[in-house]
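Handout, page 2. Input:
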Amino acid sequence: MNRKPRVISIAAVSGGGKTTITSQLLKYLNNSTSLYFDDYEFEECPEDICKWVDEGADYNEWNLTPLIQDIKLLINDHTQSLNYILLDYPFAYLHNRMGEYIDFSIYIDTPLDIAMARRILRDFSESPIDDVRNDLTNYLSRGRTAYLEMERTVKPNSDIVIDGSLPMTVIVNHILEEMSKRGL
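Output:
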């Protein structure tokens, strides 16, 4: 008899290490797959994240139906015999419909300066310096609010919080140890 795959969500601010950690965990967790929030285009979601945060950040305003449908398909696909579905997903349990599917939520608590440096290196390696300046100006004038929102709401709604400044191998090992302790 096949058991339901465990759904593990990994949250962090942009540049916090979600994608890297998710990719590394796939190497250690047999019969696993992953879904990445950024691969989806959600038709009904806040257009301006900063405005959304200023107005109270209701996570249920996001229509996450395409992601939820993919999770349901993977859970019900008994041909793959999946053990784990890893979600590179920023909201932990805060979205009511998504929260129903998540078995374990991890928050990578990456200091904002490290996350910013990673994001600039990742997103602007081929960009003119003016693009970097514009992004930093936007971050200082309004974007930082969204990062702080995650620390205020997503972090305490996660099952475990891990220091994102630690080496990636240490983070992955810590996650695997926590999963083992919890019988996941």
